[in-house]
Predict the 3D structure of the following.
Amino acid sequence: MLENQMLQFLNSDFQQFTQQDKQDKQDENTETEVPNNSQRQMRVKSFEEKPANKPLNLIFQMLLQKKTQKRQQIKVDPKSIPLSINLSVQVQELPIIRKIMEKNEWKKAHNFDGDILWCGPDNVQQAKQFTYDFAMVFMNLCISRIPGAKLISTKKETTSIMDKMRQYFPSIYNFYPKTYTMPEDLHEFIEDFEKKDGISYIAKPDKGTQGQGIFIVSQIEDLFNNGVKDISYIKKNYIIQEYISNPLLLDDKKFDFRLYVLITSLKPLIAYINEEGLARLCTENYQDITSSNLSNVYMHLTNYSLNKNSQNFIIHPPDFQKINLGTKRTYTSAKKTLMKMGIDVPKLKLRIEQTIVRFLYGIAPFLLNSTREIYQDKWEKANCFHVIGFDILIDRDLKPWIIEINANPSLEITQVVQNSNGSKRVETSSLDAYVKTKVIEDAFIIAVKTPQEQIEQIGKGKYCNSYKMIIDGQPPIENLDLFYKLVDLYSNLCGLRYGNLNQMRFCRLANNPQLINDLLIKSDYDLIYKKIQLKSLQPDLNFLGFLEAIESISEKLLKRKASNYTLQKAVTYVVNTALKAPSQQQRPLTAKR
Ligand code: ADP
């Protein structure tokens, strides 16, 4: 009987998932807004395909659209909100914050007071100390950092989450180039490299080094120090990524976008994208990759920190909003140039937003887990926000690729300029100041509103000053809830001590008769727990260990029973079943300790 139920579930679910897959495939060919609540089922074709090379037609279309669909926006004068900013834990990147405070007559707060606690990059250390005590002391302030942002501050961590999402939702998570982490994936990489298939690979240090140490892999030996092909000589803490070799070009140069995304709440998930950003160009015309040009960083890497040293580097003109020139430009001005080239910019913009939304749905449950680990039972009171920098490369098919994300996007607003006599001076970059002021100032204005206020007052697709709300607390596709549900289940099982799941509590899952069968008996739960816990060298299971355990249960319970088994369907079944179980089976004992 139970088995029938299981198989029924898998079959009905399979239909739903195939429908979903079909929908996903359609989405890839059809430009769709990520739908809001009421539109969720009505995926509309937003832009008809337009013949290329018709810039005038496109511009006309844009103008018409602008006229008919007036941008929905609430405008807030920052001066009208008298904020006080606490800088007591921050030691760097103060120039821009001070400028913003001065401009708006915002006050400096002391000790543990204020509306906003500014926590920037030099506080990575501080972020590690983002402990329960730290959170409690600043409980009444809005903290400019989500605990667990370390999950998105190294390429390895980001890659492991994106790999997981791709494993579960391959047709959705296809915008992060295939990535191998070293040394763990060396053998897999060698196998793929030897097959080659015309793919090139780029090797990057795990932690952002502003272009230093990056190289394009021409032979396996490149991955080893001194070229010694021995595992003990491997360049550790590198990732290897498929190289996107057909980039869209701007003025014949490769470029990428740095866009700024604001997260103000994790549950419900609320996120925004800033209308402004940067375009960073290479300083030499792009050519397809060959053995003779692969080491030319000015042709292949868009990092500003590298290209500023090139003799072809062009500093942006003071009137950067009108003149589309310079190695670094605004997102808006780059879009104007692309439009003149005949690129369907509205379509591109939509694709970029859609890609970012998908990325955020993938990463958010993991960030939520870290937040709950820190705040424990007070997690719902966590009052944190975060500005993330997205580096996005566009290929010639107008597909956006997320190349890197930065938990600490640079807020530098100065640049080095050469005088006519060859000496150098440091001055404020009007372009950086313009973009980054919007990014930070408006983030503060929005972040001090409660999630409910944001949803009610701003709403999906609408702007509050420079930020457009792209996620309003609702998932776009039901299945993507799975990882949130896993966090809930984990929390139910952990009880009072979130983050520490002991064996007894874990094994309560086996009290549910729907979660055992002849292939998975109660004692298997003990074995699964022990195996993963021993591997982790921790006394209890953390969330990632729990995820592994659930995967193992799902596989054992269903793999040999269901002909249409997939890991995603099986885990969904297990999680839904466990969450539906009467509460006493999972609910922790709340006995006083
Ligand atoms: P970092 O910012 O830490 O130096 P990135 O991952 O941003 O490292 O890479 C630096 C630059 O290299 C990018 O801005 C981009 O121009 C280029 N690049 C990185 N990854 C790829 C890739 N997979 N395909 C094509 N170009 C890439």
Notes: The chain has 19 helices and 19 strands.
